[in-house]
Batch of 3 targets.
Target 1
Amino acid sequence: MNQGTVNIDLVLENMSNQIANLSKEKAVVQAFSTQQAQEIEQLRAEIEQLKHFIEKNDESKAD
């Protein structure tokens, strides 16, 4: 094996490692994004429930 081949092999190995790390990071970001989206939907649902509760309270006070 000559020096040029060794350098190419090292570069390819390094690039493969970087790709693997980026894939892991992407998976983490996607999981976090999915979790945030779920939490946002849950909060929206809770806000709607609170709106209905407030509306009912306001209606009962008006009677």
Target 2
Amino acid sequence: MNRLKATLVAATVLFASHAWAQPAAQADQGAAPSKHNDEIVQMRMEIAAANKKYNQKVAAARKVYNHKKSEAAKERDAAVAAAHNGVSGQ
């Protein structure tokens, strides 16, 4: 009976210590995502970084494009309004 109790206590301690170490290992992995031993993971992380930089540049270009397009639309609308005022005034 004592042998069974000792085995159960040892197993409980073993599993508890293993479970206790899990969150610490996961926290370490989250702390340094840029350093990974696997080449494929490193390659995919580099690709993701390049895509992110590209998307930022595209977003900036779209912002400039939309601003210029809006300015052109305002000029066109003013010209159309002037044309309408000239035609309706006759």
Target 3
Amino acid sequence: METRPGGAARSIISLGHLLVGAAALVVAGVLIVAGSDRRAELGGVLLPLGLLVALAAAVFTYTAIMVLRRAPEDRHGLSLSLGIVELVVGVAMVAGLVVAVQGYGAFEPWRSPLLLPSALLVALGLAGLRLEILADHQPAPHAH
């Protein structure tokens, strides 16, 4: 049982990290399959990109699993790192969303498939960072 403040939220965010890693592995798989098709015009770009995303996703997913397996008081550094990565990637996706929306001719961000994933990554990254930063400023519970 977690005794640190925000224990339930911390567990949910840790599961969110794992889901982000799994989703990144799926995206990497799609890029690899699309890039390995002989008829793929962008095969020379998609395959190496897919392999790079697969490597990054595998490291991210492994780290998320380690966060889940560790005791709640030992999760701080890794969880903070995952939150920072999610926030950075989410902000990069928001930048891609802004560029894509400019090409629509009208301001209609809901038409972009980047809207939901970028919003979720930014929200999860900010929530994780908030919990970890607040945990730094609160005294550890005393055992009686």
